[in-house]
Design a protein that fits this description.
binds calcium ion, globular, single chain, binds SN-glycerol-3-phosphate, alpha/beta, disordered C terminus, 11 helices, disordered N terminus
Length: 298
């Protein structure tokens, strides 16, 4: 009776001896393993190091000084936070109020850009940064080198900011590779993708909601239904190869925030995530390259 062929015996030919057939099968198996599709990319792209709110370990977060320092120190990208000001401009600040970073309690959404920019948003961090201002998005984007770098723009408010965001980003269409939009707000992320389809958009999510681990498959489905490009997840997710594989299998990009622990950074880089958002991109790069654990800001 004729032996049933395994998939890799189909190509063997009659004139080969049994031993030669076995060798050929082994070679074919190796070739198949080398060319077989994998769950996620085999391309060993270096992990993108994203300076969280600029080089916020050293300079005041979300200021032009923090972005300039990040570019100067070789960060691959900068992250920043966005709100819509009272006069309809896109401004760069993390909180809904200016109290924490400027010492005066103004609500960003109901304050004019001129009033926001009259505040000192630097000296809370260090006297060396006295009179740093709250930048508009356009002022922050101007810091980005023409030939490298990328901004991850986090929408902190809702979809109402998207028309103003589009007005700022549309003239940068040919620099699409230097931009990404991120948000915890699904409506804001989905509206951005709808109005600016050429900009990559990633959905932010922490690993736990009210103390309970979130459902990754549901999050993946949500991102895909909204046409988003990927996920940007907190360090509190249960990071495993299987978890990263599920995101990759769905065809989504994968970033992680905020990673300041060198041991975790090495683990995540080995898992093949696309990028790590960190307060100290120099320390993290050193840790990833040399296995050294430097102190923050050095
Ligand atoms: O990059 C995402 C991360 O910045 C989200 O947290 O509070 O720092 O804006 P938060
Ligand atoms: Ca942020």
């Amino acid at each position: 009776m004729r032996e049933k062929n395994t998939p890799f015996q189909c190509g063997t030919v009659g004139f080969l001896s049994k031993g030669s057939e076995r060798s050929l099968s082994a070679i074919l198996l190796i070739l198949a393993a080398m060319t077989a599709p994998t769950l996620y990319s085999d391309e060993k792209k270096p992990v993108e190091l994203i300076a969280h709110r600029g080089y916020s370990a050293v300079a005041p977060e979300n200021t032009v000084a923090a972005f300039h320092l990040a570019w100067e120190k070789g960060a691959d990208a900068c992250e920043l936070d966005l709100y819509l000001s009272g006069d309809g401009r896109v401004v760069v600040i993390h909180d809904a109020s200016t109290l924490r970073t400027a010492g005066v309690d103004l609500k960003v959404a109901s304050t004019s850009t001129a009033d926001l920019q009259s505040l000192d948003a630097g000296s809370w961090k260090s006297p060396a940064y006295v009179n740093e201002r709250i930048p508009t998005l356009a002022q922050a984007l101007e810091t980005m080198p023409g030939d490298r770098g990328r901004f991850f723009l986090e929408i902190k408010c809702g979809p109402e900011v998207v028309p103003a965001l589009k007005a700022v980003l549309d003239p940068m269409r040919e620099r699409a590779g230097q931009l990404a939009v991120i948000s915890f707000n699904l409506a804001a992320a989905a509206e951005t993708k709808k109005m600016l389809p050429w900009v990559p958009v990633y959905l932010l999510a922490s690993g736990k909601s009210k103390g309970v681990t979130r459902n990754l498959d549901a999050l993946i489905a949500t991102a895909r239904e909204a046409g988003l490009d990927g996920l940007d997840l907190g360090t509190d997710w249960p990071w495993t190869e299987e978890m990263v594989g599920r995101v990759r299998q769905a065809g989504l990009g994968l970033y992680v925030w905020t990673v300041n622990d060198p041991v975790l950074a090495r683990k995540l880089a080995a898992l093949g995530v696309d990028g790590l958002t960190t307060d100290d991109p120099v320390a993290l790069r050193t840790a990833l390259q040399d296995g050294v654990i430097p102190s923050a800001g050095n």
